[in-house]
Amino acid sequence: MNRREALKGTAMIFGYALTGSTVAALMQSCESGPKLDWTPKVLSKEQAQILSRIVDRVLPETETPGGLDVGVDQFIDKMLNNVFPEVIQNGFAGGIDSFNQEAKNLHGKDFVKLEGEQQDDVIRIFEEKSGPLPGSMWGFSFGEPKEFPFYRMMKELALIGYFHSEKIGKEVLAYNPIPGPYEGCIPYSDVGKIWTE
Question: Which domain of life does the UniProt lineage start with (predicted)?
Fold first, then answer.
């Protein structure tokens, strides 16, 4: 893989329009569960296990469901497979490998074999050193990152998957439609001059 092409390809991350129906369809096909009981389409089994542990640490289960409870790890793999070109897929997979190598450098073990606090240390390092994703519009980048923005892309996809999941939408978030329901046949005396305010 050509590194320059991979970096340029990251500009396409924001060039894709993710509609609510696309995200919802991908989320509905995800299964939940704390263990890797699904087959990844883009990532290797080991990379998918690392991704699942990262998601579990970034979006843990508390009084609300965690990221693994709503299948965020599977959502990310499906988004990579269905939305992003191969250059982005390869960059993301390489980012997971770099993430795991950082864990080995710090603690001498693979990320999935570390204790929770040690995993948090690795995540904290990536959080601090990862700059914002380069801005883009309609697939054209306004800047070129120095390296593939794996962590920021992973975190963004995790949050999109989490907050667009059916379980979170129904059980955690409160939906308040604005401007509200349309009532086309209301007596004028009930409304008064409110329409001018």
Answer: Bacteria
